[in-house]
Amino acid sequence: MTVELVRANAHDSDVLFAARVSTLGEQTLEHSQLDGSASEADEKRDRGLINYLMRDRHGSPFEHNSMTFYVRAPIFVFREFMRHRIASYNEESGRYRELGPVFYVPSTERNLVQVGKPGAYDFLPGTAEQIALVQQQTRAAAIHASEAYQRMLEAGVAREVARIVLPLNIYSSMYVTLNARSLMNFLSLRTKREGSLFPSFPQREIEMCAEQMETHFEKLMPFTYAAFNVNGRVAP
């Protein structure tokens, strides 16, 4: 899974600026909030305010920022992304361009056996035989589908028709733009972490994307990220 931060206008000061207008009215951010020269007392105050907002779920101040990610992943991962109707998505189109023959095959480290009940699954490693079966069958299906796709294109069939034979493990790419509040909602559902107030059981492939997005989030907004974790990884 490939996740790249394309652009960002996201900083802890955006949260503070939005929150303080409630009590101070129109204001200008202090220079220290932007250049990192805030005093220890200022930093403690800022961390405290962000933690208060997170803890008591005053969510709107966390919306005044933006992050855009480039994501390259199998289409079945994108279907899970788009269940989160809290972001803007633009995906490459199989109607307008020929899709490359790049398909996802699970690695030997990918757990294969599902145990437990709905909402509380665990996934365990597969046997050597199961791993070999999954990889062989996945490759065979991808090759067969890709060859069928190419035959139709060569026969003059429109791309939008030829693509219907392609499986969900073909790679696609998209841009995802969202704010910190939306990202925290996504991370709370698509990562499995100790200390989460509401445990989640995501599919591993989308969790791999979420983990990379989380790394960027932590660097961009460290106070917000820390408060998110301290308060059970619940989006405000």
Automatic annotation (TrEMBL):
<keyword id="KW-0545">Nucleotide biosynthesis</keyword>
<dbReference type="Pfam" id="PF02511">
    <property type="entry name" value="Thy1"/>
</dbReference>
<comment type="function">
    <text>Catalyzes the reductive methylation of 2'-deoxyuridine-5'-monophosphate (dUMP) to 2'-deoxythymidine-5'-monophosphate (dTMP) while utilizing 5,10-methylenetetrahydrofolate (mTHF) as the methyl donor, and NADPH and FADH(2) as the reductant.</text>
</comment>
<protein>
    <recommendedName>
        <fullName>Flavin-dependent thymidylate synthase</fullName>
        <ecNumber>2.1.1.148</ecNumber>
    </recommendedName>
</protein>
<dbReference type="GO" id="GO:0004799">
    <property type="term" value="F:thymidylate synthase activity"/>
</dbReference>
<dbReference type="GO" id="GO:0050797">
    <property type="term" value="F:thymidylate synthase (FAD) activity"/>
</dbReference>
<keyword id="KW-0808">Transferase</keyword>
<keyword id="KW-0274">FAD</keyword>
<dbReference type="GO" id="GO:0006231">
    <property type="term" value="P:dTMP biosynthetic process"/>
</dbReference>
<feature type="binding site">
    <location>
        <begin position="80"/>
        <end position="83"/>
    </location>
    <ligand>
        <name>dUMP</name>
    </ligand>
</feature>
<dbReference type="InterPro" id="IPR036098">
    <property type="entry name" value="Thymidylate_synthase_ThyX_sf"/>
</dbReference>
<feature type="binding site">
    <location>
        <position position="60"/>
    </location>
    <ligand>
        <name>FAD</name>
    </ligand>
</feature>
<comment type="similarity">
    <text>Belongs to the thymidylate synthase ThyX family.</text>
</comment>
<dbReference type="GO" id="GO:0050660">
    <property type="term" value="F:flavin adenine dinucleotide binding"/>
</dbReference>
<feature type="binding site">
    <location>
        <position position="91"/>
    </location>
    <ligand>
        <name>FAD</name>
    </ligand>
</feature>
<dbReference type="GO" id="GO:0006235">
    <property type="term" value="P:dTTP biosynthetic process"/>
</dbReference>
<feature type="binding site" description="in other chain">
    <location>
        <position position="163"/>
    </location>
    <ligand>
        <name>dUMP</name>
    </ligand>
</feature>
<comment type="pathway">
    <text>Pyrimidine metabolism; dTTP biosynthesis.</text>
</comment>
<comment type="subunit">
    <text>Homotetramer.</text>
</comment>
<keyword id="KW-0489">Methyltransferase</keyword>
<feature type="binding site" description="in other chain">
    <location>
        <begin position="91"/>
        <end position="95"/>
    </location>
    <ligand>
        <name>dUMP</name>
    </ligand>
</feature>
<feature type="binding site">
    <location>
        <begin position="83"/>
        <end position="85"/>
    </location>
    <ligand>
        <name>FAD</name>
    </ligand>
</feature>
<keyword id="KW-0285">Flavoprotein</keyword>
<keyword id="KW-0521">NADP</keyword>
<feature type="binding site">
    <location>
        <begin position="179"/>
        <end position="181"/>
    </location>
    <ligand>
        <name>FAD</name>
    </ligand>
</feature>
<feature type="binding site">
    <location>
        <position position="185"/>
    </location>
    <ligand>
        <name>FAD</name>
    </ligand>
</feature>
<dbReference type="GO" id="GO:0032259">
    <property type="term" value="P:methylation"/>
</dbReference>
<feature type="binding site">
    <location>
        <position position="190"/>
    </location>
    <ligand>
        <name>dUMP</name>
    </ligand>
</feature>
<feature type="active site" description="Involved in ionization of N3 of dUMP, leading to its activation">
    <location>
        <position position="190"/>
    </location>
</feature>
<dbReference type="GO" id="GO:0070402">
    <property type="term" value="F:NADPH binding"/>
</dbReference>
<dbReference type="InterPro" id="IPR003669">
    <property type="entry name" value="Thymidylate_synthase_ThyX"/>
</dbReference>
